[in-house]
Amino acid sequence: MVQIKDKFKVKADELNATVKEILKEHGSDKIGEVTVAQVYQGMRGITGLVSETSLLDANEGIRFRGYSIPELREKLPKVNGGAEPLPEGLFYLMLIGELPDTEQVQELSGILARRSHVPNHVFATIDALPINTHPMTMFTTGVLALQTESLFAKAYADGINKKEYWGYMYEDALNLIARLPRVAAYIYRRKYKNNYHIQPNGMLDWAGNFAHMLGYEDEGFKELMRLYMTIHADHEGGNVSAHTTHLVGSALSDAYLSFAAGMTGLAGPLHGLANQEVIKWILAMQQELGGGTPTKEQIAAYVRKTLADGKVVPGYGHAVLRKTDPRFTAQMEFAKKHLPDDALVNIVWNVYETVPPILQELGKVKNPWPNVDAHSGALLVHYGLVEYEFYTVLFGVSRALGVLASLCWDRVMGQPLERPKSVTSEWMQLFVTGKAEASAE
Ligand SMILES: CC(=O)SCCNC(=O)CCNC(=O)[C@H](O)C(C)(C)COP(=O)(O)OP(=O)(O)OC[C@H]1O[C@@H](n2cnc3c(N)ncnc32)[C@H](O)[C@@H]1OP(=O)(O)O
Ligand SMILES: O=C([O-])CC(=O)C(=O)O
C-alpha cells in the first residue's frame, strides 16, 4: 500500500506544479459567463468545480481518466475466469490516473480485506434504529457511527501541519471503502434476513466478498456486483453526491462525515433513489394491469398517466447527459448475455422503446433517454435481491470509490473552503433593472 500512496503523492506533486503554473499564467482568464437563469435553475452548465477522477460528455457519457465504460470493461483486470472489471482497479485508476495491472489490483483487494474490520458500536448504532427505517438512513447512520475511527479527525485534533492532511485523508478513504460492504451487508441481513449475518471471506475480491456477505453466492451475481460497483462509482464532480462530499470535505470534515453527507443526497429520488423508484413504478404498473407483462400500448398509457399525475418517469432524463446513458447500455449488454429471457428485464427494454418519444412530445424534457437507474433494479431482482429499498445502498457503496478518491485529491491539492456567493431575489430585481451592481466575489 505504501507503494500506491507514494505513487499518488508523486502524481499529485506533478499536478500541483501544473496547476500553480495555470493559475499564475491564466488565473484571470474567463471560463464562461453566468446567466440569471442558471443562478435560478440549478446552476446547469456553470463550470465551477475541479474533479480529477472522471469527466462527462453530454453525448458520450462518462469517462474515467479518459476511459469509457466499454473500454474499462475490456481493460481493467478481472478475477480468474471472470468477464467484468474489478472495481478496485477503477479506484486505482481514479486515484493514480493509470490503469493497474492484475497484481496491483490483487494487492489492493488484499489491503481492503485486511482493513475491513467494523467495530461493534457501529452495529449497535444501526440496531438502535427501528427495523422499518429506510436502508439509506441506516447506511448514513452507520457511516457516521464509524467516524470514531477517523485518523484525519484525530490528527487534526492533535494539531498537524496542513501539508500532512492528504496522508490521513488517504488512510481514512481506504479504511472507509474497506468497511462499507460490511456495514451495507449488515443492514441488508438485519432488515431482510432475520438478522442472520454472514462473516466476510478475506480470500474474495471487494465486490465478490460484498455479494457473499449479502448472501448471494451465485457467480453471476458476483459478476453483476463487480460491474455494478464499477459503473456507479463516479460521474464527475457536480452530481449531488459527489458535490456534497466535496463541499463538506472543504470544511476539513473527515472522509466519514463528508461521505455520509454525500449519501444523504444520493438518498433523494431525483438522484440515487431513482433506482428503487423504477422497480416500484414497474411493479405498480403491473399491479394496476392485474399482473403479467404489459404491452407497449399499456406501458405508454401508464407513462402518460404518471405524467398527468404530475410525477416524473423514474430512470429517465438527466441533468447533463443528452443520450442513452452508457451505464444503462452496459447493464443491457450484461442482461443480453446472462439473462435475455428474464421477464422484468424485457419490460425494462420495452419501457426503453416506449418512454423517450412520449417525453420528447412534452417539449420541455432536455433528455428523454434512460439513465443508469432505469436498468439496475431488474438485474438485481433476477438474482433474488428483490428488496428494492436497499438498492441505493449498493449505489452508495460504489459511489464511495469515486467521491473518496476525489476527496484524497482535494486534500493533496490543498483545495480551499467552498463558498460561492448567493443573492436574494430582491437583489436580483435590483440587478436586472440596473439598480444593483453584480458582485464578483
Ligand atoms: C444517478 C442519477 O442521479 S441519474 C438521475 C436519476 N433520477 C431520475 O431518474 C428521476 C427522473 N428524472 C428527473 O427527474 C430529471 O430528468 C432529472 C432530475 C434527472 C434532471 O432534471 P433537470 O436537469 O431539471 O431536467 P430537465 O431540464 O430536462 O427538466 C425540464 C422539465 O422536464 C421534466 N422532466 C425531466 N425528466 C423527466 C422525467 N423523467 N419525467 C417527467 N418529467 C421530466 C422536469 O421535471 C422539468 O419539468 P418542469 O419544468 O415542469 O419542472
Ligand atoms: O451526474 C449526475 O448528475 C447524476 C448521475 O448520473 C450520477 O451521479 O451518477
Report on this structure.
With 441 residues, the chain is mostly helical. It folds into two domains: 1-27 and 43-280 and 393-441, Citrate Synthase, domain 1, CATH 1.10.580; 281-388, Cytochrome p450-Terp, domain 2 (Orthogonal Bundle), CATH 1.10.230.10. Helices cover 59% and strands 2% of the residues. The chain is built from 20 helices and three strands. It has helices spanning 2-26, 36-40, 69-75, 87-96, 102-114, 120-127, 135-146, 151-158, 165-192, 206-214, 219-231, 240-249, 255-266, 274-288, 296-308, 326-338, 343-362, 373-382, 391-412, 425-432, and strands spanning 54-57, 61-64, 67-68. Strands 1-2-3 form a three-stranded antiparallel beta sheet. α13 (255-266) packs across α19 (391-412). The radius of gyration is 22 Å and the shape is globular. The two termini are 42 Å apart. The mean pLDDT is 97. The protein binds acetyl coenzyme *A and oxaloacetate ion. It is an enzyme of class 2 (transferase). Belongs to the citrate synthase family. InterPro entries: Citrate_synth-like_lrg_a-sub (IPR016142), Citrate_synth-like_sm_a-sub (IPR016143), Citrate_synthase (IPR002020), Citrate_synthase_AS (IPR019810), Citrate_synthase_euk (IPR010109), Citrate_synthase_sf (IPR036969). Its EC number is 2.3.3.16. This is citrate synthase (unknown stereospecificity).
